[in-house]
Write a structure and sequence with these properties.
Blueprint lengths: L19 E6 L3 E6 L9 E9 L14 H20 L8 E4 L2 H11 L10 E3 L5 E6 L18 E5 L24 H9 L10 H4 L4 H13 L5 E5 L2 E4 L10 H17 L2 H11 L4 H15 L9 H16 L10 H14 L3 E6 L19 E5 L9 H18 L12
Antiparallel strand pairs: 1-2, 2-3, 3-5, 3-6, 4-6, 7-8, 7-10, 8-9, 10-11
Helix pairs in contact: 1-9, 3-11, 5-6, 7-10, 8-10, 8-11, 9-10
The structure holds MYO-inositol-(1,3,4,5,6)-pentakisphosphate and adenosine-5'-triphosphate.
GO molecular function, one term: inositol-1,3,4,5,6-pentakisphosphate 2-kinase activity
Enzyme class: transferase
EC number: 2.7.1.158
Length: about 425
């Protein structure tokens, strides 16, 4: 059956809660994978909005004008704003599907014991009447290999975060550390005690240098946090608390080498880094004054941009970057702010890489070098909220302050390099 486009009405598919397994969640959404027999949705998963437990009694979407429209716009944003920047091949299709309150309530009860403690201040938003179906990126691997062995697919989920440092010209002199130490490395000191700070530097992952990519992946395996997860079939093998155990080191090395080859080969990572940087050339320090001016003058209503605003912004950006001598100083406040928010989406996406089976180390006896088979997709490419701009500024200040408190002089600071 053809997948309906996102402009169609939400599909009406009978859902049975027992057919859905809790898969995972982030800050805003919770995801369930389908285990039933309806061939139309086999291999798909359901993404539902969450809201604060405290506000859930009366439902949280009540104040939203139209949750269906919002989710439809998010799907269009992923395909038509993020897709052209990163490449449409990385974006998964989305289908809107109608939901019943009883189905949501039963999923809530079923998932509760499986959810991580740090996510329990939020729950499924009981007032949403539309959910999003997406292909489960973990699917697609044939269960039996050519040798007849049963295969277990392996999925690596990377949240690569910021791939660049702002130029000295876009940050104030008191924050010049932002041009020497990357956002992730500094942020670690706000998020964790000094002894738990990760050795992972995203700039290594984005470097295009195999040695540095391997180093980045090894550091992630030592301190996965929410930046690395490994699933074997649908079961988690490494998550935020897990480190690679001694006996798994050899297995990890084979997987790591294969993922390093894919990171190196795919244009995705260099596009992510380039677009993050080009869409954020003013830094939040330059954006906050534009935001205040635009809101005060009324040139930017302080409401979430519409889908046509986003489409215009990405079209303007693309056109401008085709002209060699253009720069962001020539654009309107609104354009600069929307570009910054698109960059913020790109700094927060995750990348899923699925292999049909756990790779094995190549030996000199392997006569014909084989290309790894894999599927790759970008998830969580939703628009960010305009109203969060002042928060982004305060968070930036806080991150720099904490970092300088822990590492006050040059000798104690990291040297991140692009
Ligand atoms: O600001 P950051 O870099 O901490 O990013 C937030 C993420 O924190 P992280 O540092 O990756 O653990 C945060 O992730 P966690 O909840 O910490 O797993 C969210 O992704 C958040 O986005 P949103 O509010 O859900 O749209 C992210 O917020 P945005 O900055 O993308 O709005
Ligand atoms: N298409 C997919 N295929 C497989 N797994 C997925 C897919 N989409 C999401 N997931 C899983 O569900 C988890 C939560 O999804 P998602 O990242 O969309 O949540 P979020 O709340 O929007 O995240 P964030 O906290 O970054 O805003 C992911 O980390 C991933 O493990």
């Amino acid at each position: 059956m053809a997948v309906p486009s996102s402009v169609d009405l939400p599909e009406s598919i009978p859902f049975e809660p027992n057919d859905w397994n809790y898969k995972g969640e982030g800050n805003e959404n919770i995801v369930f994978s389908y285990r039933g027999s309806n061939t139309d949705i086999c291999g798909w998963l359901l993404r539902l909005s969450k809201c604060d437990v405290a506000t859930s009694v009366n439902g949280c979407t009540a104040h939203r004008l139209d949750d269906t429209q919002r989710k439809r716009d998010h799907a269009t944003y992923s395909t038509s704003v993020i897709g052209p920047l990163l490449g449409p091949e990385y974006i998964l299709p989305q289908r809107l599907v109608a939901l019943k309150p009883d189905f949501l309530r039963r999923l809530q009860v079923k998932s509760e014991p499986l959810r991580p403690a740090h996510r329990l201040h939020k729950q499924i938003d009981m007032s949403q009447d539309v959910g999003v179906l997406m292909p489960n990126a973990f699917r697609g691997a044939p269960p039996v290999s050519s040798s007849g062995r049963l295969r277990q697919s392996v999925t690596v989920e990377l949240k690569p975060k910021w791939g660049f440092m702002p130029s000295l010209g876009s940050v104030s002199p008191r924050n010049s550390v932002k041009s020497r130490v990357c956002r992730y490395c500094m942020h670690q000191f706000t998020k964790h005690a000094s002894q738990d700070v990760s050795g992972f530097c995203p700039l290594d992952l984005y470097s295009g240098d195999r040695h540095r990519i391997v180093r980045a992946l090894d550091s992630l395996a030592q301190s996965p946090q929410n930046n690395l997860r490994v699933f074997v079939d649908d079961h988690i093998a490494i998550d935020r608390h897990g480190k690679i155990s001694e006996e798994c080191v050899a297995q990890w090395e084979a997987l790591r080498d294969c993922i390093a080859d894919i990171v190196l080969k795919e244009p995705l990572f260099s596009r992510l880094k380039q677009c993050q940087r080009m869409l954020d050339s003013l830094d939040i320090e330059g954006i906050l004054p534009l935001y205040k001016r635009a809101v005060e003058s009324g040139s930017l209503a302080n409401v979430q941009p519409s889908i046509s605003d986003w489409l215009t912004a990405v079209a303007d950006f693309t056109q401008r970057t085709e002209i060699a001598d253009s720069n962001v100083a020539e654009v309107t406040d609104k354009q600069a702010i929307l570009e910054f928010l698109i960059s913020t989406t790109l700094k927060d996406v995750s990348v899923l890489i699925t292999l049909p089976e756990w790779p094995v180390h190549k030996t000199s006896l392997d006569s014909v070098p084989t290309e790894p088979q894999y599927a790759i997709a970008v998830i969580d490419s939703d628009p960010k909220k305009l109203a969060k701009i002042p928060n982004y500024f305060s968070k930036d200040e806080k991150i720099v302050k904490h970092y300088l408190k822990h590492c006050p002089d040059l000798d104690s600071q990291q040297q991140c390099s692009e």
